[in-house]
Specification:
The complex is a heterodimer of chains A (105) and B (276). Chain A is mainly alpha-helical and 105 residues long. Chain A has three helices and no strands. In chain A, helix 1 runs antiparallel to helix 2. Chain B is an alpha+beta fold. Helices cover 56% and strands 15% of the residues of chain B. The chains are: A mainly alpha (105), B alpha+beta (276).
């Protein structure tokens, strides 16, 4: 469906969704900060923080950026983008981890 | 514009991409932005994993201000909502309401930068002094002391060629209150002879703060870029919207895509820098 054919009713339906997403994002922000004050061990803290941030990021991308109602090529391009992003993030792991931070002469 | 020079898929979805070309172009731009921030996030992981023991703070909150950053997170999320509400209003042909939401978005972006300004300037007025011989502060023997320069402390000068602070004859430091307390230990006089290094909490302080300023600085530049575009539409939008309402809604949709991306980056920056 093209956005150009949206009726006023559809738009106001969208607005209700935006407000729900807004509420969810605020709750998740409270969770992010609340979990920090629990002082979990580092691995647990990283896992929880990244999961919550990923949920928030997905909500923004799907609803505010309308990704959930897009069709076609864009998914493939973004999938490729996500793949390269993961490779970028794994670079430190792929690199010889033991050698990181040691002084080489 | 005459029909003869109409651009294909300027407004109508392209059969292959499923969207009008402007929006597709913006998504491609955002994909390249993911690579830019991805490379920096990756560098962060590399630097943090490689940091020698004790040189990386246990978590950013040791140095950074979590309540201010939480406030800023809420400000930015709210600005994303007002941005998408501006688009929705324009879709319903309510130009005045759309422009109002656009203005609110602009003001929220400004509020984010004002808070960031206070956060940054606090870092440049906060000092760490590394000692040659440990000193006793508040009953503990310490090898470095954090605090603010006392009122009557002679001003510090920078050594021009290495951009670091020159070691003065002495400094007067009001040490930070210990964790969990609000009471500051009394002003300390530290002789230059016992000072190994002085730094404010700017990028030169440590790898962590260099990373912090690089990432939040680049994000801040994106906020400024977004504000320029939003301001342009605040000033010229009403007239254009009366002529081409659909086209204007599309432009605001594209601006919104960029703006939500800037919000999305912050959603990851906040926990990574401040809380982990």
């Amino acid at each position: 469906m093209s956005h150009h054919e949206m009726t006023a009713e559809e738009v106001s339906h969208h607005v209700r969704t935006y407000l729900k997403v807004f509420g969810a994002l605020l709750v998740l922000t409270v969770i992010t900060v609340g979990v920090f004050y629990l002082h979990l061990p580092i691995v647990g803290a990283v896992v929880v923080a990244l999961i919550v941030a990923s949920i928030k990021g997905s909500l923004v991308a799907c609803y505010f950026m309308h990704l959930i109602s897009e069709r076609g090529l864009i998914y493939w391009i973004l999938a490729l983008c996500a793949l390269f992003f993961v490779v970028l993030l794994l670079l430190p792991v792929i690199t010889d981890h033991e050698a990181v931070g040691t002084v080489t002469h | 514009m005459s029909a003869a020079v109409a651009i294909p898929h300027d407004m109508e979805p392209h059969p292959v991409t499923g969207m009008y070309n402007g929006k597709f172009g913006l998504w491609l731009f955002l994909a390249s932005e993911v690579m830019l921030f991805g490379a920096l996030f990756s560098s962060y992981v590399l630097l943090r994993m490689g940091a020698p023991e004790g040189t990386w703070p246990k978590h950013g909150a040791e140095i950074l201000n979590v309540p201010l950053a939480t406030f800023n997170t809420v400000v930015l999320i709210t600005s994303s909502v007002t941005m998408v509400m501006a688009w929705a209003a324009l879709k319903m042909n309510n130009i005045a309401r759309g422009q109002l939401f656009l203005t609110v978005t602009f003001l929220l972006a400004g509020a984010f930068l004002v808070v960031k300004y206070f956060e940054y300037s606090e870092k440049f007025n906060h000092f760490e002094v590394w000692l040659k011989e440990p000193m006793v502060v508040d009953g503990n023997s310490v090898s470095s002391i954090r605090g603010h320069l006392a009122k009557d402390c002679p001003p510090l000068t920078k050594e021009t060629h290495i951009r670091a602070f020159a070691i003065p004859e002495f400094i007067l430091l009001d040490p930070d209150a210990p964790a969990g307390s609000k009471e500051h230990p009394p002003t300390l006089r530290i002789d230059g002879g016992n000072i190994r290094r002085i730094s404010d909490f700017g990028p030169a302080h440590s790898t962590f703060l260099a990373t912090y300023f690089t990432l939040t600085g680049l994000h801040g530049l994106h906020i400024i870029g977004g504000m320029v575009v939003i301001l342009y539409f605040m000033l010229t939008g009403s007239r254009f919207a009366q002529k081409r309402p659909d086209k204007y809604a599309d432009r605001i949709e594209c601006t919104g895509l960029y703006w939500h991306f800037v919000d999305l980056v912050w959603i990851f920056l906040f926990p990574v820098l401040y809380l982990l």
